[in-house]
Amino acid sequence: MVKELTVYPDERILACGDVRGFDESVGKLFDDIIDTMKRHDLDALSAIQVAHPFNMFVVKKEDQYIEFANPRILQKSKPFEAEERSSYYPDISAVVPRFEKMKIVYEDRNGNTCYMDADGDRHFAAMFQQMMDFSLGGTMLDRIDKKQKQRILDALEGKGLVPQPGDVCPTFSRKDYFVSFADKILFFMGLSLLTPLFKFEKNTVEHIYMFDKIAFPLVLALMLGFFLYAFYESKKYKQCSSCQVGNNIGVVIKRSVAAVVFALGAYFLVNPN
User: Fold this and answer.
1) Would 97 disulfide with which of 80, 134, 171, 265, CB 3.0-4.6 Å?
2) Residue 118 burial by CB count (10 A; 0-12/13-18/19+): exposed, middle or buried?
């Protein structure tokens, strides 16, 4: 039977609990969820979205409707950003941080424990995690930054324009990889300055100094890559304060100065010649 969908600001969406007893009503509710998905052409739907406060939902994968009761994510990795929509927020889309690879445990309509390894299907992964948000008493908007969330809520209440997906500031950015790698290199460059405190053989000291000589230009190259990618994002996400050029220049200057200081320290303290 097709059910009526709950739509923002219906607060029944915020209360959900695990399925305790697996009887015929569980299978009947799963059937109703699938019927409702077919009627509204949805790729995923949770029980709470049809006003039944149970931790159960269905996600469509190709032509298969996979039923999940009391699901849990045991492991997750491979972050990415998904542009998502939800029947709870009509005509709204947002870019939400998700994980492509997951190890899942759940129960089927009969209460049997099942396991799933999901990897390689980003759409399925995003829909599954969006349903998990509902099961935890939240929505996809709880996964984005507070300013962006407030702009969307204001738009839903008629107080402003709805931001377009291209304007959404990403919670996760690939430019962070540049910073993370540079910070690791800087850590070992700083650690190398302790070399004079230990009685290393000359050959070992030469290797340590060689690392410093390679690490210095590598940090500068990483900062250049970071700045170029950050500049690209500042054009793509115009409303994102963390993407603005001023903030990114500060990141580049701090790490470049640290690289120069450590390189000079290595020249005077570690250089075996």
Assistant:
1) 171
2) buried
Joined together, the tokens standing for residue 263 give: 């390189």
Taking the CB of residue 20, how many other CB atoms lie within 10 A of it?
8
The string of pLDDT tens digits covering residues 134-190 is 988 888 888 888 877 888 888 777 654 444 455 445 555 677 889 999 999 999 999
Q: Tell me phi and psi for residue 224, to 5 degrees.
A: -65, -45
8 A C-beta contact, residue 209 and residue 269 = no
Q: Does domain 11-163 have CATH number 3.90.45.10?
A: yes
**pTM (two decimals):** 0.59
Confidence at residue 244, expressed as pLDDT on a 0 to 100 scale: 53
Contact call for residues 42 and 59 (beta carbons, < 8 A) = no
* CA dihedral of residues 87, 123, 105, 15 (deg, nearest 10): -20
Average pLDDT over residues 22-37: 94
* pLDDT score recorded for residue 235: 66
What residue type is assigned to position 264 of the chain?
A: L
Tokens of 190: 């700083």
